[in-house]
Every structure is written in structure tokens, then in C-alpha cells.
Amino acid sequence: MSNTTPDFQADEFLLDHYVGKTPLVRLQRLASHTQATVLAKLEGNNPAGSVKDRPAYNMIMQAEKRGQIKPGDTLIEATSGNTGIALAMVAAMRGYKMKLIMPASSSQERKDAMRAYGAELIESESMEHARDLALQMEKDGIGLVLNQFGNPDNLEAHYLTTGPEIWEQTGGKITHFVSSMGTTGTIMGISKYLKEQNPNVQIVGLQPSEGSNIPGIRRWPKEYLPTIFDASRVDEIMDIPQIEAEKTARQLARLEGISAGVSSGGAVWASLRIAEQHPDAVIVCIVCDRGDRYLSTGLFSVEDTE
């Protein structure tokens, strides 16, 4: 029996090779009543299944490069789900302990995914409470808070990757960019890049309408507004009704074969409204994750009557 090493080629699994470079697909049936081009950026194709893979990887790697952290350290983050899953994945690969704080109302799939990557999960009563608790734990010396809500490395990830991908994939023809807003890192980074290429590109941010509860996006109280948010980089803010976001998420799966969550449904709903008003538009929206993270919520069990 030979003891020689097998001769084969394999990539070392470096995340910077695999995060991003996601597909941009044209919606066919949902947008068929308009003349505009509506394109969906499928961020669920990232390794941990969401757009948050991009900032999670960048925040940890940049902190390493600055000497703020080293493998074996404990990282802390407040999250509504996708960022936590992505951070847990990167932490597992880089050798960090990960403590994640999230609202108890988050879907079971999200909680299970975080634990699957080895993260410790702490449930809280709200996202605001989760953010406060994370900062208190850091003050108590338990670990370092990456602070996606105020960390420039969050938006930098989108300025360096997502924005250039969208510009290249549309051949520079994009006229409108649509994104739900949570930490606002996605819309801030992409807006910065696209406006540098063409100041006339319209940037549309989405927040839940009053009384709506859409996972991953918020109407932040003023004192909790992410410090990376710059209102001057958003041309229009649209309110998204929860019922329309949920209905469109189901239509996206049933009519386009794209399984995604509620905030993605909201982004598509807003894009279709823009398409109806601007027949010559080329609209890109972020489909931020996959629908399998919402199965236990019953999102896809509803039969819409209209």
C-alpha cells in the first residue's frame, strides 16, 4: 500500500473566493405587465445563504488585519438572523468563539443555523434590547462587539463587491436600485459605488410600514438608527406593507421559482411599483436570502385568493 499523498487538485476553501459573484436574474412573469426590466440579485446563493455573508466576512477579516482580534477570541453581535448565521460561519472557519443575541421571535431555522455553526445563542425581547445587551457584554469584558450597525467594514463590503457586480452585470444600464434597510450597510455601500459611476441612478430604500413586522428590516427609533446610515445617499424611502411583502414572497416562489424571505418579497413588490411608473427603467433589487429560513413560520402555507 502506498503512503504517498493522492495527486489531485482542490481549492483551499477561502471565503473571499466564494462570497459574492451572485446571479442577477430577470423577473419574467411577475413583471410581465410592465415594460421595464426588473432584475433580482440572488444573495441566497452565498455560502451561508444570505447577503450578510459579505459584511460578516469583511468585518472579521478587517478586524484581524488591524490586530483587534485573533483566533480564539470571543466575538459578540446582536442580530435578527442572517448576519448572525454568516458571522457564525466565518467564526467557525477562523477559530473564534461566537456569542449571538437575537429576538426570541426570530424563526427557528435561523436559530438552528447559528447553533449548527457552533455559536452560542442568547435570546432577547427585542432587537433594541439585543443591541444594548451586546454592548453591555463588551463593557463587562466578555468579548468584542463587531457592531454591524456602526462598522464601516459593513458598507465597505458592498462598495467593494456588490456594487461593482451590479454595475458590471447590467452593463452600466441600471437606473434604479432597490434594497430593504436593516443595518443599512447594503444600501449605503452599493449607493456609494453606483453614484460614483452614475449620479442619476436612483437609490430606493425600504422600511416596514407602521405596524408591519418584516424580519431583517426596521423602522428604527432615532436613538437606534445605525450610525453608518447617511440619508443623503438614499433618493427615496418607501414603506412596505407586511401583507404585500409576504404575498409577493409567495408569488416569487410560485411564479418565478425563486424562494426567498419576506424582506425580499418587499423589495420585489417595491420594484414592481417602480416598474409600473417608469417603463424604460432597469431596476435591480436585492433578494437577500432563501425562503427555507421561513418554512416554520407558515409563510408559504397560505393560499392567496388574488
From TrEMBL:
Enzyme Commission identifier(s): 2.5.1.47
Pathway: Amino-acid biosynthesis; L-cysteine biosynthesis; L-cysteine from L-serine: step 2/2
Residue ranges of every copy of the Tryptophan synthase beta chain-like PALP domain listed in the record: 17-289
Leader peptide range in chain numbering: none
Catalytic activity: O-acetyl-L-serine + hydrogen sulfide = L-cysteine + acetate
Cofactor needs: pyridoxal 5'-phosphate
GO MF annotations in UniProt: cysteine synthase activity
Alphabetized Pfam families for the sequence: PALP
Classification via InterPro entries: Cys_synth, Cys_Synth/Cystath_Beta-Synth, CysM, P-phosphate_BS, TrpB-like_PALP, TrpB-like_PALP_sf
Keywords annotated in UniProt: Amino-acid biosynthesis, Cysteine biosynthesis, Pyridoxal phosphate, Transferase
Similarity field: Belongs to the cysteine synthase/cystathionine beta-synthase family.
PANTHER family: CYSTATHIONINE BETA-SYNTHASE
Protein name: Cysteine synthase
Biological source species: Acinetobacter pecorum
Annotated gene: cysM
